[in-house]
Design goal:
Elements: H1 2-18, E1 45-50, E2 59-64, E3 70-76, E4 82-88, E5 94-99, E6 109-117, E7 125-131, E8 135-143, H2 145-167
Antiparallel strand pairs: 1-2, 2-3, 3-4, 4-5, 5-6, 6-7, 7-8
């Protein structure tokens, strides 16, 4: 039961991170004490570069704090729709959200990877994989760094392939815009 509550809490944090209005994180406008609240905009640096992760013409926007530490990244397709969002909390929690459709909110949420460092034993992590419809696909605990890297790499590729498959679905008419 305790594990289920912890998973639910992680999931709630993931939904909070994924449901913020577009641009709110990048401009430091989140209110309250969320673990994912950005520092004031004047102390953060945003950089946008071309990125073809989700097709030609896409972008990747990175947000760093005043110590030049990465705190968030957002990948967009050529239409400006969010396809993937990464956020790094002060407590070491990492949330990777993947979006289908126009990528504007949790109704178009395609999945999440939540990684959380364990307080004990040091150097171990929990990781939970969520699929569409708020379904827990896989839970890991007590992962070493090597195990975390291996499992995260696998699930990250799966989520990106899923989003790219949705975008490039051969059964849908091509986007000519």
């Amino acid at each position: 039961m305790r594990r289920a509550k912890a998973s639910l809490a992680s999931f709630a944090l993931a939904l909070l991170a994924l449901s913020i209005p577009d641009g709110a994180l990048m401009h430091g406008t989140l209110a309250g004490g969320s673990a994912f609240a950005a520092e004031p905009a004047s102390r953060n640096t945003s950089t946008t570069i071309p990125d073809d992760t989700f097709g030609a013409g896409g972008t990747k926007e990175s947000l760093a704090n005043d110590k030049h530490e990465l705190i968030a990244e957002t990948w967009r397709d050529k239409n400006g729709f969010i396809r993937e969002r990464f956020e790094f909390g002060d407590d070491g929690v990492q949330i990777w959200g993947f979006f289908q459709g126009e990528g504007q909110g949790t109704s178009e949420w395609g999945g999440t990877i939540a990684v959380k460092p364990m307080p004990r034993p040091a150097g171990r992590w929990d990781m939970t994989i969520y699929g569409p419809g708020f379904v827990t696909l896989k839970e890991y605990s007590f992962l070493s760094r090597d195990e975390l890297d291996k499992e995260f790499g696998y699930w990250h590729r799966q989520m990106r392939n899923w989003v790219n498959g949705f975008i490039n679905n051969p059964q849908r008419p091509p986007d000519n815009g």
